[in-house]
Design goal:
Length: about 180
């Protein structure tokens, strides 16, 4: 037997065994990447939903009254009446339908459920979208129940979607 090199059969066997070993090691890494992406999307949808609720809570603390507005399924707006020294009225609106089309925005005022004036965008409607925003009056001008559903697409063209549902109550400290 000549042992000065490797035969073609030995080389092919080494390549096949190496390929099998690499595939066996790659599967857990691919699965981990999918779990990581899903977790990241969930965290981003939670962050976006909580940011909206915190912004509303900050305005509601100083508000004297609120007006819930519903303009169709999944779409809602809430107007908080505040003293002019605090910036006056604030209108929060969002939902999957027009005029926001999946965005969540804040306007200086509401007129017929549609924001008036310069808007501040809290959720852009591209990667994160508002699927539902509904307001229920619990105690008029004192306590409002909110439901906000935000979906997040890790990649705009990705079919994978993570949803975050936040249900909370806002208390108007200065409400009548």
């Amino acid at each position: 037997m000549n042992r000065h090199g490797v035969t073609l059969i030995e080389l092919l066997m080494a390549l096949v065994i190496s390929a099998i070993a690499m595939m066996a090691l790659a599967i857990p890494f691919v699965a981990e990447r999918a779990f990581w992406g899903s977790g990241k999307a969930q965290a981003e949808s939670q962050r976006d939903a909580e940011m909206v609720i915190r912004a509303m809570a900050a305005v509601a603390r100083e508000a004297t009254a609120y007006t819930p507005i519903s303009n169709g399924p999944g779409y809602g707006a809430i107007s908080f009446g505040r003293d002019v020294s605090l910036g006056g009225e604030r209108c929060f609106q969002g939902g999957p339908n027009s005029p926001t089309n999946g965005r969540f925005v804040v306007h200086p005022a509401c007129a017929g459920g549609v924001g008036v004036g310069a808007e501040t965008v809290l959720i852009d409607g591209i990667r994160s979208r508002v699927e539902e925003f509904s307001i229920t009056s619990v105690i008029p001008n004192k306590l409002a129940r909110l439901r906000l559903v935000v979906s997040h697409h890790p990649i705009v063209t990705s079919p994978r979607v993570e949803r975050e549902v936040l249900e909370t109550e806002l208390f108007l400290r200065n409400g009548s």
